[in-house]
Amino acid sequence: MNNYLSTLRATIVVVKIASRCNLNCSYCYMYNMGDQTYLSQPKVMSDKVVDKLIERILGHCKLHNIDNYEIVLHGGEPLLAGKEFFRKFVSKANKILVEQGGIRVRYVVQTNGLLLSDDWCKLFAELKIGVGVSLDGTPEDNDQYRIDHKGKGSYDRIVKGLNQALNSSYFKEKKLGVGVLAVINIDSEPEAVYEHFKSLSIKSTDVLLPLNNYDQPAPKPSVNNGLSEESPYGDWLVRLFNIWFYDKSPNRLRIRFFEGIIKNFLGKNVSSDDFGTKKCEALVIETDGSIEAVDALKVCGNGFTKAGATLFTHDFDEALQTPLANLYHLSHFKLPQKCMACPVREVCGGGYLPHRYGNNKGFNNPSIYCEDLLKIITHIQNHLFNNMSEEFLNQANVSQLDYLKIKRNFADFNEAESEETLELEHF
């Protein structure tokens, strides 16, 4: 492996400051997809763990000359940790990382929105913490899966908190953004979801494929909404893309997923942990100080992300060399042979690592959303090319991708065993 790949670093840390939640979403990878390790963890991160975390971040940044760092305050539901926790955390981090270390730190909190209030918005503005709220579309779409512990829907309470943030004078004064994260409900109408988000005055959103894999397949449409059987999520994304791409209104949404794919086709080399061809640079810290690979890998099995690394026994570089963390960070490079031969690999990057897992072959599988990703990526490329001049396309020496042709070419793909692919099966 070349030096670029062998040198790993973490420029983002996802901090699980609370390991309980006031919702009970049926698709939640933390609590409802088989992992039970949260039961043995503290409900809220202690001062001792926070202090060690900040020490580890500083040491890692100095070692790798990192001058920009992102801290994502996460859970469970992070607001359950309380306002004083946020004040102390940011105060300590700013003193050590910013003032002493000269590091520019960006803070983000990902919340379900139920506890968001004017006081919380005032605090987040004071601490310069950006806010992401999880909401899955219309009331009916959201409340199918995002329920509380009594089985009741959460839409009204989420939107109440979301509106507090969207309309906050404190946020506007500090120019803080509020984004919305939506897991695709395959029974929803993508056009209705888009228009509904616009009606809420949301400016920035992202859509996520459900967190499933070969052992826990993704939900299929339970209603006749015109989606194909082999690639329903691809069809859903195509419909969402079409209304988004041709929306010329002043309140057109920003959708990270589409913008990232477009930028890749335009040569920007944009990447995240679910697409692209760069290294993934995040680590997860649990409330007890455990250092883990991306938390979504909990869907692979109970205790799957536990590698024995903690803030008190390992620095970040050591934690990055544990097998699962190493694979996650290089997940767009360590791929099945079918992915390596695919013409959209440099955009797709093999997709999101948790979507590739199955007990039979570990991570030596294409994403369970392989056909869906192929459909939306080729669709986006062709729409881009249709809006470019023939002269430009000739100069760039590019041609349109054919979804059906690629699909036929890979129908009988035989993958030979190799040292690289067998490594993916060790999990």
UniProtKB/TrEMBL annotation:
Assigned keywords, A-Z: 4Fe-4S, Iron, Iron-sulfur, Metal-binding, S-adenosyl-L-methionine
Cross-referenced InterPro entries: Aldolase_TIM, MoaA_NifB_PqqE_Fe-S-bd_CS, rSAM, rSAM_sf, Sulphatase_maturase_rSAM
Cofactor: [4Fe-4S] cluster
PROSITE patterns: MOAA_NIFB_PQQE (PS01305), RADICAL_SAM (PS51918)
PANTHER family given in the database record: ANAEROBIC SULFATASE-MATURATING ENZYME HOMOLOG ASLB-RELATED, RADICAL SAM DOMAIN PROTEIN
Name under which the protein is recorded: Radical SAM core domain-containing protein
SUPFAM superfamilies in UniProt: Radical SAM enzymes
Domain Radical SAM core per the UniProt entry, residue ranges: 7-259
GO molecular function, one term: 4 iron, 4 sulfur cluster binding
Top-level taxonomic group: Bacteria
Organism: Pseudarcicella hirudinis
Keyword tRNA-binding attributed: no
Pfam families in UniProt: Radical_SAM
Gene3D superfamilies linked: Aldolase class I (3.20.20.70)
